[in-house]
């Protein structure tokens, strides 16, 4: 069911400083800053060739990463996003198997403009998992 | 400098249960269990096509993930491993830039039989980063 890792999201307290470290110390290819007010984050994309690392800073009121950054003031790995071909089928399989989909259990349009859901970290070893429907580019593992 | 994400490591309290969830709920391709006593872990590999997720359980005395699992009894994302072409050059660049390499600052042979170092999470937004030298298969980002 799950395909490629679309991105690994890392919450950071200072986006410009984090971007500079990835660029200068790790020699990575780092995008400019994008503000996504509807999603409560500012983000840069680190392109590492086979996937992306997204560095996220809280932006505005009610940011979905604000509580995480309060618990982890240095920042930390926030979630992993896997691609799926059919998010409705994925949700059915997961809920029938007892995994909890966050929110009302229905897909929302995520930061990339595609349908996403998040799975409760308790169901997957403390790891917050995002599923993103990416057809027609889906490549099964 | 950094290339592909070689793997994302997730520490789990119960490896067989975690492997079953990835296989049955996420429909992923999950390897059999490997015991790596020299590295203090039991591991399964989840092949998602563009990279690997490694589920790690503590194994034996002095496991490098035991303290993490004490702090995070449900498990959690433990580290990201990036490929580099020349680990000596990477260490020089990082230390000259002020990032701290864990241990004595020299590469060790990691769980894949290749030279690795770990970078202090304080230097990278609370994220533990492993660098693995993978020449001749290195693909720059």
Automatic annotation (TrEMBL), chains A, B:
NCBIfam families: metmalonyl_epim
Protein name: methylmalonyl-CoA epimerase
Domain VOC span(s) in chain numbering: 4-134
Organism name: Pelagibacterium halotolerans (strain DSM 22347 / JCM 15775 / CGMCC 1.7692 / B2)
EC annotation from Swiss-Prot or TrEMBL: 5.1.99.1
InterPro entries: Glyas_Bleomycin-R_OHBP_Dase, MeMalonyl-CoA_epimerase, MMCE/EMCE_epimerase, VOC_core
GO biological process: L-methylmalonyl-CoA metabolic process
Catalysed reaction, written as an equation: (R)-methylmalonyl-CoA = (S)-methylmalonyl-CoA
GO molecular function, one term: methylmalonyl-CoA epimerase activity
Superkingdom of this protein's organism: Bacteria
Alphabetic keyword roster: Cobalt, Isomerase, Metal-binding
Keyword Isomerase in record: yes
